[in-house]
Amino acid sequence: MASSQKVTTHLWFDDNAEEAVTFYTALIPNSKIDSIMHFDRAKNLYGILFTLDGQQYRALNAGPTFKLTEAVSLWVRCEDQKEIDRVWNTILKNGGREQACGWVKDKWGLSWQVVPAALEDMLNDPDEARRNRVLQAVWGMIKLDLPTIEAAYRGAAA
Fold this sequence. Notes:
alpha/beta; 2,3-Dihydroxybiphenyl 1,2-Dioxygenase, domain 1; four-stranded mixed beta sheet; 5 helices; 8 strands
């Protein structure tokens, strides 16, 4: 199955792309593995086309030459704290590592930004004081806490 998107994010893995993609498609609702393409079975070289909630990606088993870094991350918009907790905790329970400001790195090295959907609107608010309170709250967190962010936005204590 060929990708229908003009531009598709491509992720490089050493030798565990299928394990990672299986995890990713289970983590994000409305996701699936579209196809697995074997280029060289002797070297375990293959690509995977997969979809995360309507967005297609490619993964490649290509050896240890390149590693994933924080220079590329997946931004996951969560509707509420329950969804933030589910995504965050699932990544951690599967070998992930917490990072600051709502970032968590999975065991394959891919960074995820697990954020409340409301955060973008708060950070685009024309009121500079509100934006600054929200930023200060986020900068002090590891996993984002929506009630605390909302309180900062309103100018109230959490």
